[in-house]
Fold this sequence. Notes:
- By secondary structure, the protein is mostly beta strands.
- Helices cover 15% and strands 37% of the residues.
- It contains one helix and four strands; from the N terminus they run βαβββ.
- A four-stranded antiparallel beta sheet has the order 2-3-1-4, covered by helices on one side.
- Strand 2 (27-32) and strand 3 form a beta hairpin.
- The longest helix has 10 residues, at 14-23.
- The N and C termini lie far apart (24 Å).
Amino acid sequence: MKIYLAVLKKDINVEEFRRSLKEKKIEFLDHYKSIGIIKLQSDNKISEKDFEKFCESIEEDQDNLTL
């Protein structure tokens, strides 16, 4: 499984985003509210095109995120 980090757009309904993820069998791992990032996990590649409504960007986790 691969881990992804998604930067949310402003004023997004997180519950609606969670439902959308569940439909696509993508696991919601964590929500870093203060920086607007969500951590996701999936067997399949996740594309920004799949979630344009919710996310500014989605990147595969490189294990180098520092806060």
